[in-house]
């Protein structure tokens, strides 16, 4: 049961950050693990049981106390920068003696998790860029020499910082970051300073006591241990390393990164990792998959000697795995094929070898290879070109990419001369099919149409692709080609035959699931960041970001080529920025130059450059979004780090499969954050492996999607009654009502879609206008290079990323100087500040007009379907350093409005009264009930709901934004989607996926399924199996399982079982409520209530 009086209710622990990562690299001897330096709760006994210290430690304690006093004073003066020269002069004044660098390093060795002693870029101390400085804002750079004017950004400007890594007190939530809780910048009172000094002194005493005890047990001399370890903690100025490197001199001692051939095994790496001083039992689960030997197969018709020589020369292939041979044999006998095997099993050979065999027999033969992402297409194109060029007789084969980046002046030549094109469904829909008359040579000779990563096409996108393929097959048949073979490759899915049939509309399908490829041993590790302070669990856990980047740095230093997957673009850039900062402070510029970020939005030239580096194996580390999740052979990756649980188990399996693609041992690490979703898998790690893959849904009966593609098909070639074989039972009703029929019986597109019907159909949802982000640094400082386009971002992203604050690109920080909404341009300048920004915003999702009404089965209540309005307002931003708020800035920006379709049901007044009487937070109940319903809908990735934000729901003062008591669901892709309509009309229950077949249910039956699933779940406060969702963008922080049950039972007119619900110890103050009774939504005239079918 959850209490609800804000200010009194106890929420679950939240993630805290602020810990420095200086000790989390491989600096310092990894032989002995530092024990916990948490403050003992019983401080009074500490002095009484203290053993006599050697004089060395008494002298070191004096230095520590003086340092503690000075830094505590700095903590109470936010404008003071704790650079080593500033701190040293004050400490020497207290000690009456010089402060030696070696002594500080000894303190660092003794307290590696408490003291920060490292070089950082000078500008990381600044809060404000000069032209944006505000009079009432603190400036951390006031103790430093003023920075030179912006010209060239001299990376050699570093300063040595000496400070304590604070354990910050728990603060109220202001805004929720993806993995961290924001906390105000500290401003200590005199009493707070005194307490802080005492806590730090206690930590020193505890550390010494533990060291003396450990040294006595192993027969070591404690002062020698500290002095020996201190040598590794003397900081090195990165500018010195860079200068020495530029003159080819030998720099300071640093370990060389082992080559892929020289690196140690993953088991050895994990064993050493568990003995490092910063390891604190973070590994809560480790599962090892044993190596698998290859199973070879036999081809009925062997490829030519030339093809086999080319395979051996380019890919070291002299035989075929069993699944490869079975697929090639099936294609040879004329069947369509789907291969559903594990990642890195050599699936591309299945369609590339048959294409080469066809081309040897007929140089007029053509083939189409389709990929979901441009990165994957580029990767596969390079590999196929190398194979073809090594094949005698096919050296001059015309192989081209045909996508949105292909220059217009090259497209005609590709169309007329290419034998093989690498493309995507967007281009087939919008460029090839509308101009089929220009492609007839190519289509008439088409032998193989291959689709890689077929599991990617599901939900609304899958529905669009299914109708594109029916249009494509119809055009091929019209030009005389009924013999093209369709082949698809997929990760392991539950029903590959049905999915391929849904997408391609063909029946003669051979399914191949037996994987004959070898694989090396792989370790899967769940890494849960440790508590900030074992003595104070309420402080939460250390930063997921810092833990993940520390792991990545450690792995790269040991020659482990690593990719880190981030869920969103902003986190990707923050991770890259953190790596850039920490590697620079460690002086590991040799590693930094081999690390790059890759995500959507980068310019074409940047994407190609990064792809060349990645595919060529030149990078040691990549930080990416799921843009590289699919099938890309990124050199010889050894490890995958997932920064937070991906949105579903299927994505987690895809990402973890990116490593170990050369049959070598590999490592996958899931670094969990503090959200309920991630912590669920910490408690139940087996769920990651035992969970069955969801059935992939392709909706073929949605009238809106089908009509749009019939308009396109009629424009390509007029439709006739015979075309019903491609488009199903709704073909005739839609053609009769929505298309134009001529006297000969042919159907033509409705004039409102002309001249280009395909432009009215966005297969990936609503197309947004894009903002161009331009770096104008050089143009402002007189540089010769001028302005440079950094990236293009959608309008919805620009709203949150291009306000006049900070911006990150490749881990480098920029200041947004100017935003022109008329020209869709944002101008930025480089600025090496060590803060980032987070927008302060809110979004309201409101039912605007009712189009249809249905009864809730067996209940007096109704569900509604209609127009939904979404409004987002960005009213300011925080300046952040880690999770610490440095400044709060207010903005005046126009609201961002958009419309979509959705369905909703209002919560009855008596239900609200019941929850109020029981002390149940209505916002928690509504949010949990919404996710319980979405969890029972198989197309849930295509719908959204109004996720409740903890910062609003748990405020300590009244909220002016009162939200209606309503469950609301809307199309994520905007108008033109069918998911919300399907949920309202029929719904597809994912509960039935346990029987490998979907059953259609009325919308109210989704609520019944949600209730049954929630009541059957044995969890106490809700979990991913019932009322929480991996798709919740607010981390499921606002949730009540008991409340969800009350809401669902009331809507279904079932007894509420109030006697089973204990009374809350206190009631909610009506002034603090954020949910109010919903008002009736305006409806269209003459709407009748539809009966539930």
TrEMBL record:
Residues 328-511 form the Helicase ATP-binding domain. It comes from Sistotremastrum niveocremeum HHB9708. Residues 1-48, 128-148, 244-264 are annotated as: Disordered. GO terms for molecular function: 3'-5' DNA helicase activity; ATP binding; hydrolase activity; nucleic acid binding. It comes from the Eukaryota. Residues 244-253 have a biased composition (Polar residues). InterPro entries: CDT1_Gemini-bd-like, DEAD/DEAH_box_helicase_dom, Helicase_ATP-bd, Helicase_C-like, HRQ1_WHD, MZB, P-loop_NTPase, WH_DNA-bd_sf. GO terms for cellular component: nucleus. Residues 547-725 form the Helicase C-terminal domain. Gene3D superfamilies: P-loop containing nucleotide triphosphate hydrolases (3.40.50.300). This is p-loop containing nucleoside triphosphate hydrolase protein. Residues 1-11 have a biased composition (Basic residues). PROSITE patterns: HELICASE_ATP_BIND_1, HELICASE_CTER. Keywords: ATP-binding, Hydrolase, Nucleotide-binding. Residues 12-22 have a biased composition (Basic and acidic residues). GO terms for biological process: interstrand cross-link repair; nucleotide-excision repair.
